[in-house]
Structures are given as structure tokens and as C-alpha cells.
Predict the structure of N(4)-(Beta-N-acetylglucosaminyl)-L-asparaginase.
Amino acid sequence: MAKLYVLLSLSLSILAISEQKTPIVITTWNFVNSTITAWNVLKQGGYSLDAIEKGTSICEEQQCDGTVGYGGSPDEDGETTLDALIMDGRTMNVGAVAALRRVKSAASVARRVLEHTKHSILVGELATKFAVQMGFHEETLTTSISKRMWLKWYYKDHCQPNFWMNVSPDPSKFCGPYRTTDDFTHKNYDWLPLTKIDRFNHDTIGMVAIDNKGDIAAGTSTNGAKFKIPGRVGDSPIPGSGAYADNTVGGATATGDGDVMLRFLPSFLAVEEMRRGASPTEAARTAINRIATHYPNFMGAVIAMNMDGAYGAACHGLGDVPFPFVVQDISMDQYKIETVNCSWPLN
Ligand code: SD4
């Protein structure tokens, strides 16, 4: 009997080892370098929050496809501003910055908000002041590329497309200052991506990681929407929208048309669906479906992961282009790029 018990528990533990999925990190789009960086933290027994900060920071430094970090997505005034979030699923603590000006390391500033304040989100110029107090360097986020992009939009494209609705510009100009009018001439921006999304036009980095202590963390970093109205805050720094993590369930992160997505807190919804027993894929689909019901033209994706390291994703509005995300877990020798088709039926 004792022998049988030993044998049984041995085979159960072998089963457990072979099914081991954590530590694990998942990352939106194919931001491979960020995934590798986060994985290196996890592999060495590091903390999930460190993996998220380091992984997203690399994307900021490398200006991942121009949509993360400095020198991308200039606003209407030509300035690049940054949004970032970091969430600790062990403590449910959050740090975030939104519309951060003149500081490159948005993810690390978000981490300082989490660790050195009782607040959750700091914004704009005053977030910059906080960052400087925390020892961050202030510098321009404009590059020759972002400057050229803005000059073309302003002078050649006459400030089109833009995010205004029901307004008209000064009659002598193509662009602002705008005034409200019922008889507006500007075309509404109907939540179509400004440019076709392909592998060279990626979006926000969102990451979820579980470390070898079983603690989960999630985070995001982005330079937001191209030619946004100055002061705009997207979904990425909003807890429950850009990302969410809860040690008792799992985590999720989102990318896409942030102004619309943040109205639905898709990351929170995905986590809550998993709490109710949904698989990560089902949970991500529910979150996407909720948005699509109201905004059939929106573009976005959600990736979700439970505490066993099972993960899934859903997306919408990318046309025939599948949505890629990167995964690395303890069972893999190397990261893996997964894709999900966006044309699953919306019911
Ligand atoms: C934003 N969600 O600021 C971000 C950008 C993004 O696909 O992910 N776009 O709206």
C-alpha cells in the first residue's frame, strides 16, 4: 500500500512538473525583445513587477515600431507624450502616468508612482515634475522622424484626419483653433485606424507576467494616438483598461483604439470572466465582443492569462491580418509568437 502511495505521488509530481507553465510572460504584438528581457528577469527567479518594468522599458528605449516611447505619435502640437501603467497582482497596487511630457522612461516613472506614492495615476506636466523629483532626466521626446510626420500632417494633409467632432476650424485656416458648430465641415473620426495596421505599424506594448513565486503583474507603455488632441489620455494607463492583474485569478492587457476601449475596461472584464470560470480565450473574446457590440468599427485586441499560465487572446478590426502576441514560459527553450484570427464570429 505504501509502495502504491509513493508511486502514485511520484507520478502525480511528474505530471505536475510536465505541466508547469510558470514563470511565464505574454506580450502584445510581436515585441520580441521586450519579451526576452522580461523572461530573463523571470528565469533568474526575479519578481514579475521587475519583469514588466524592464520588458516595457526596452520597448520605450527601442521605440518599438514608433508607437512606444519617444519620437512617435506626435499630438496636434507636434509633441510626443507617453502613457504607462504597472499593476501588482499580489497587492493590487497600481502606478501609472498619463500624457507624461519630456521624460522617456514612462514605465519606470509609473513604477515610482506605485512604490513611492499613495496615488495611482499622475498626469501631464505635473507627472513630469514628479519624475524629475524621482531623478529622471528631462529632455525632448521629439525626433526628426516625429517632426517630419507632424509637418506633413499639418501642412500637406491640413490636419486630417483628426479627433475633433462637430467643430469647424478658424475660417481662414485648415486647422484649429476650432469652435463648436452644428454645421461642421470636418469629417468625424469614426474609430477607423488612422493607418492600416501591419507589422510595421504596431501599437501599445501590454505585458502580463507570473514569476516563480506565483505573483502576477501587468503593464503597458505607449505614445498613444497619432495627432491626438493635446491632453488626451488613452486606455493604456487606466487600470482595468490597459492592463489588470489579480493574484487570485490572472491578468490581462489590451491594445487598440484606446478612446473607445477604455469605456469598457476590457482587461478588468477579462479577468472577471476568468474569475467566473471562463478560459483565457473565452474571457478575451467576451471583452472584445462587449466593445464590438457598441463600436463595430473599432480596432483592438485583448490577451489574458490565468494563474496556471494558460493564456488566450481575441481581436477585432484588423481585417485579414491576424493579431500576434509573444509568449515565453518555463517549458520553452525560446519565445514563441502566437497569432489569433480576428474574424471569429461575434455573437
Ligand atoms: C491608445 N491603446 O493610446 C493605445 C494605442 C494603441 O492601437 O494601442 N493603439 O489608444
Remarks:
- The longest helix spans residues 2-18.
